[in-house]
Amino acid sequence: MTATSSRAARARRAARPVDPITFELASAALQAAAIEMGGVLKHSSYSPIIREMDDFSCAIFRADGDLVAQADFIPAQLGAMSLVVRAIIDRWGSAVAPGDAYLANHPYLGAMHTPDLNVIMPVFHGGALFGWVGTAAHHIDVGGVRPGTEGPDLTEVYAEGLLLPPVRLYRGGDENPDVFALVGAAVRDPVSTLSDLRAQRAACLVGERRVIEVTERYGPATVTAVFDQMLDAVERAVRLDLADLPDGEAEAEGFLDDDGVGGPPTRIHVRLAKHGDHLVVDLSGSAPQVRGAMNVPWASTRASVVYAIRAMTDPARSTNDGVLRTVDIICPRGTVLNPEPPAAVSIRHNTCQRLADTLIRAASAIWPEHAIASSTVAFFGMNLASVSPRTGVPSVMAEVVGGGTGAHRGGDGLDGVDTYMANVGLMPVEVAESSYSVRILRTELIAGSQGDGRYRGGLGIRREYQVLGAESAVTLYSEQTDPRFAPRGAAGGGAGAPSRITVTGPDGTVLPVGSKASLVLAPGSVVRIETSGGGGYGDPAGRDPDLIAADEQDERG
Amino acid sequence: MTGASSAGSGLAGSGPAGAGAESWIVGIDIGGTFTDAIATGRDGRVRVAKVPSTPDDPGLAFERALLALAEAGISPGAIRMIFHGTTVATNALLTGRTARVALATTAGFRDVLGYRNGSRPAVYDLTQPRPRQLVRRRDRIEVAERLSGLGEVVIPLTEQEADRVAAQIAARSPEAVAVCLLFSYLDDAHERMLGAAIARRLPGVPVTLSSAVAREFREYPRTSTAVINAALRPVVGSYLLRLRSRVRAIGAPPRLQIMQSNGGCLPADRAAEQAHRLVLSGPAAGVAGTAALGAGYGLRQLISLDMGGTSLDICLIGDGVPPVTSRQDIDGSPILAPSVDIVTVGAGGGSIAAVDRGGRLRVGPESAGARPGPAAYGHGGDRATLTDAHVVAGTLPAGMPLAGSLALDRDAAAAVLAPVAADLGLSVPDAADGIIRLAVAQMTAALRQVSVQRGLDPREYTLVAFGGAGPLHAGLLLREMGFASVLVPRFPGLFAASGLTSTDVRIDESRTVLAPLTPGLVPDLTSWYAATGRRLSAQLRRDGIPAGQIRLVASADCRFVGQGYELSVPVTPRGLAGVAALARRFVEQHRRTYGHADAGQQVEVVNVRLSAFGALADGVGADGVGPAAGGDDDQARAARRRPPARSRIGRVSVRLPGAAAARTVPVFDREHLGGGVVLTGPAIVHQLDTTTLVLAGQRARFDDRGSMWLEEGR
After folding, report:
1. For chain A, which ranges sit under pLDDT 70?
2. pLDDT at B577
3. What is the chain A residue with the closest CA to B121?
4. End-to-end CA distance of chain A
5. Interatomic CA distance for residues A150 and A141, integer angstroms
6. What whole-number distance in Å separates Cα of residue B665 and Cα of residue B674?
7. Tens digits of per-residue pLDDT, B573-628?
8. Could you give phi then psi for residue A299, rounded to 5 degrees?
């Protein structure tokens, strides 16, 4: 069906080309609409993970679901949402009506993992379906057995909270009370969740209004052609970039520390081939799907590939589904990157980060002159049951800590940041301690954690949390605690240090913790996390002696 | 290229200058290319001067501008006060020429400047450079002390520890010191104690306490603010010291007011210690001028549009007072200081038009800058710019003199447009038209961002268009946005300088509260507003401002419990008009801003803010035109007359944006368009510092102040 409508679109386009100026004016307006949607959502949302960490996306779609314009917030969701729109079309078809808004999060029906709630609205013009606008946002909790929903040791998607195939959150402009009631009953913080769903729908209303304005101004036939040309323009630009690079093939592999439930390391394998202006990404050498929640639903695997293509070509160019036309992704069902239901997927982000790193390393192998050392993919996460010291209200402290990025031929890596497909901020100490029963004893860069080289990797972060008040349940997870999997160097540079989690009880006893754990901590316990530094680039002997001296004086190791 | 001139033409009077001691108010704005000065007499006479900027020693251009005014007949001794907008703080930060700072932090947290907020400036770029840090890691000293999240002392700071840290800092011989300890917004005792110990060890070295410059929570932005203040104090201090001695050497009284980012000014003797508040000094002047000019006409709903060679600054003024945001970012570093809420777009006359690899036309953000500038300027520019597109279209007529005796070269403009046109498959005139329309679309998007996207209707606002390229696009924006009207001030190219002279002295103070809005909180808030109001008023009186000219404006940053972003809600000056009223206002504002709000939820107060304004300049209009010249009135409106013959200086062939073909359009000289004149578009109004385009179906009306009003309809 996609192929047919795409041929039809091409025929229409041939018949009625849009002049280049009208095309720019209309596509700029659509791009601005997506950004405006993002502003509405970010500034009025409750979930810190949306508002502080930008873990959301807003986009505009063609009637068949292809994403044509998006706001650049977080790469992890890009290239994924169009599958949700397709799932809505498949399920609701001709029943889709103006004023409807659909809610979906089902990892096996186009979504990524259950906490990412998609709210999507059709746009009608002249009584006909014209396009779609949508948002995807990470909610802290959508129910399930764990506070915060996620858990590496969950083994079925049914344990990962409320599962929503596309359902009608709004019908003809009115809230669908059944769905609101159902969601409200299933999640741990219904006030925040329902408010944020309303904020997502408010963002969609803004997007809908803007798309209609653009359509009324330029005419539906022109805007339909503009949609098509926006996809074509991205495809063409990516193809030109690819054509400039030498042809070649390379493979790379990377590992997760385990399978989420204490089993052996999970292999991610990439065979990347570039011929002319086309890429083939073959992931079939990756591990079979695993028992724990490290599996990656197809939408997220696709998003990882889209991310890597943008990072490899022109990072400044905004993208859309046109980029997918430049690549064939081979990934058999039943693998960790394309699992069969009901495999659990809630920690899929760690696997996606590992996939992104492996894709970049394969590209570095084909094009050594553009090689980039690996960034950390430790992605330390902690969900700590807590209580507000100001109000006494129970809550969950959700924490994510970044590390060092890889060095490259232009210079050193960045210290203490989130990497690749995410860009989550570090929670300020003054926010943490006024919101949760915790004291942060230190947050510092780890001297010596970087890979050595002509250019050095960025430093990892050491952070220590002391539990105050009462006994607290905690889920901890990380990757790269195994030194073999620490961030690699490039072009002769050294590897970054592995990450480490250390838990010390109030009496000074050290509890053994590997890369993942669910524990109950006594008051006074201290969790210390140390994240990986980035890999180095080039022969360390080639480093500028002035830079070496400056690093020494700055005690960077 | 130094030049000075009188406004001439009887518009602003041109009698002998210097009558009456201390009768002139002077505004001096230092821009990237030119330093502009405008002097206004009590009786409304105006003198202007334009000299090239001297980036290596900006004060030199300042001095030359004063000397140029002196040549124009303004004796320095007759100057009553000088207002100054400066980019010295901004440039120091952007070029890294700041003081070497040592930073004292709570033990375990010296790297807050290293990991910043934990995210990457550019999400997709794997080769982005490491952000510049204002304090080297070796110069960050840890202090054994700690407060809890509720402000209780967990580890007390001892005298011995304070002295140990002070000695360690002194051993590093810093040029300035910043102190930022965790939770100092709750209790500043440790910071004060440490600051005193450092001052004893390092007499004469400025010491900045984070609790003194930004008493707000979140350690990274507060540390960044304290460090930026410390890094700029020696730079701004020595600049202002030299400036004041230059002013004295010329013989002018050293009564100098410095523009701040917040749209108000500050006496020069207090500006260095508030150096982090000067970063938007330049752009804020035009916004302040817009508010003041609008006030002269009784207009409170205004949008300022300042378009120069490289960028476009837009600010929406909702109630006559320039809106401020509580935080700004410069070069990726946050500053917690109220700053005029300006949206900047990389769209200026020098913005480069190019076709990218996907075959798509782009205008900006890259700019040809002042040098080489557009190809039409003949300084060797070899890339197509927006200005070149206007020269090809004829909307900027070749052959008319511009500031600095520039003559526009139409052939050069067409030559640089040719490859762009070829890439687009268009003719050169069609490409020029497309570039102009795309630039206008970008400007429209920015205007929508400050109006429609905030739930505000542009039809209720007057656009004030200035800067070298603003008036050229004003008529086009009027058509796109449907503003109530468009006001082009008398001297659009000098408006930033003239806007300076109309500003008030302004002091801001804030404090983090972070508590639910309950009746129990009200007494605390009320007493903070009262005590802070008394303190700020006392400071303004020490600055020489009479009590009757002091005004206080209070606000509270509120959010629903659980949200992470605040909305600033105005608070009535006499304290809080009840919890319910504040909560209701917040809910209304939330709904207006975001399209939804749940009135049933608990509201919390995050920060309280108070601003004190002291009125300074009396009787000078923001356009530089004094009060004697009079304002718009019904009589002038009624006395509608045709433009005099001598104002018609030519007819040119123009392809109006969006039109299919060129047509002949008359050109008028603004010098000869006095009060009551109405001309109908299409027309081009020429003056030395700018060009205004009036579209077909629009009219331009001139009032007795010399302002030009663009309106739709004849």
Report:
1. 1-16, 47-54, 73, 76, 78-79
2. 63
3. A423
4. 58
5. 8
6. 21
7. 555 566 678 888 899 888 877 777 777 888 999 999 999 999 875 545 566 665 43
8. -60, -40
As a whole number of angstroms, the distance between CA A121 and CA A59 comes to 11
Q: What is the pLDDT of residues B332-365, one digit of tens each?
A: 899 999 999 999 888 899 999 999 877 889 998 8
What's the predicted TM-score (pTM) here? 0.90
Number of inter-chain CB pairs under 8 A, A vs B:
225
Q: Is B114 on the interface with A (CB under 8 A)?
A: yes
- Say yes or no: B153 contacts chain A, CB-CB below 8 A: no
Domain positions in chain A are: 2-237, 371-557
DSSP bridge pairs for B177: B102, B207
Of B150, B183, B357, the CB nearest to A241: B357
Structure tokens given for B130: 């490491």
> For B582-610, b where at least 16 C-beta lie within 10 A, e where not — what string?
bbebbbebbbebbbbbeeebebbbbbbbb
d(CA A231, CA A239): 12
| CATH superfamily to which B3-91+238-295 belongs | ATPase, nucleotide binding domain (3.30.420.40)
- Which residues of chain A are within 8 Å of residue B358 when distances are taken between CB atoms? 233-234, 236-237, 240, 317
Beta bridge partners of residue A62, listed in sequence order: A131
| Beta strand residue intervals within B522-602, DSSP E | 550-560, 567-571
Q: For chain B, positions 513-572, list CB contacts with chain A under 8 A.
A: 514-516, 560-565
Q: How many CB atoms lie within 10 A of CB A114?
A: 26
Residues in chain B, total: 714
Give B274's pLDDT tier (boundaries 50, 70, 90).
Answer: very high
What confidence score (pLDDT) does residue B62 get?
Answer: 95
At which residue do the structure tokens 């062939």 appear? B653
Q: Which residue ranges does chain B devote to CATH 3.30.420.40? A: 3-91+238-295
- Residue A435 neighbours by CB under 8 Å, 6+ apart: A388, A389, A390, A395, A397
Mean pLDDT of chain B: 88
Q: ipTM value of the model?
A: 0.91
